User: What shape does this take?
Amino acid sequence: MQQSISLAEYQQRRQRILDHVSSHAEHGVAVIAAASLQTRSRDTEYPFRQNSDFLYLTGFNEPDALLILAPGRAQQVILCCQPSDPAAEVWHGRRLGIDRAVAHLGVDVAHSIEDAEEVLLDVLNQADVVFSSHEDSSLLEQLHDVASALRQAPKQGYVAPSSWQDLSPFMADMRIIKSAAELDLMRAAAAISVAAHKRAMRFTKPGCYEFQVAAELHHEFARQGAHHPAYGSICGGGANACILHYTDNADELHDGDLILIDAGAEYQGYAGDITRTFPVNGRFSEAQAALYNVVLKAQLAALAAVTPGSSMPQATQAMALALTEGLVELGLLAGTPAQLVAEGAYKAFMIHGLGHWLGLDVHDVGTYSAAGKNRPFEPGMVLTIEPGVYIPHGMAGVDKKWHGLGIRIEDDVIVTATGHENMTAAAPKTVAEIETWMQG
Assistant: This one.
């Protein structure tokens, strides 16, 4: 089984969990569950997407599996997975199977998922603390059922766990700093996403439909080996761009309108996430260009603030000042920019945050503050920077020439030792770059 992340790296990640459990419990056990297939309708399922924590620790992309990490035991890394079944595999695809799991995944021992209850009864017996994700309700139910069975058999020497700890915060801290191998996968996801956006720009013209633009994006994703979008692609023409999570993608695109595309490829589990806004006919109007440049200036100000030791609030402050200054220049706000920023006046036009962590999840895990303090940027963190301005039809106190305009510009950046690396900079972004690319 080919992997872009080495087996040794997966083993190192699991060792960090083993060390964490050992340092917090005398006889602790960690249990991480794979995802299961989800029914779409009747007897058909959605395309399978692995649980991100399970994927991070194993690289194993099959449903219905358990990873059990039990420090101190002779066999510390235990996998329960689907056994080989030629009849089932004819219908649903090949399985790694129990016999090959040890060598391919580097675990100490593998069992059938059908024997998971017996394995858990053995491993959880006498354990004092169980570590698992408290967001995984089905796993928690399974673990509590096992604990209940242990409590009911004290004469057989069984002792149920006495404490439960959420493993998610520790996993999030592990995942927020990307390894060199992860960054390479994220660069690949970004490059595929850039190519798709460029293709969509070249394709778009008056009279085509939003769903056709989305199809161009998805074609390019798949053509380059990204089997799925990282999230529901947004292709909002005209006033639809003012709907932040617009995914209907059903309307015709009209001459003179802008289209906002927010879309990214998922490559080997890692997400790209780009937003570009451009004219359907390939030429910005004067008003569109003026407002677009305000958003672009704000994004560039925020990007400049992405350096080690800075933080999301500091980048947001830089963005807010640049955005407010631009809105004042256009007459959309009135007053002194510094005072308007203090009042949060720009939030009437930008109703979302500046960005988010990016990784195995498009809104990746990791805190933005701790103990009342902002979390500083560190090398290896990956995040989006995505300011926007949205002026829906009928917005009070705003000249009608601005109504129906929604503009967002988003890039994916790695925090480096000296600043940042913009992985999606190759997607045309300035007015001149966009118009030149669209004109061919």
Summary: Residues 382 and 414 are 4 Å apart (CA to CA). The radius of gyration is 25 Å. The mean pLDDT is 97.
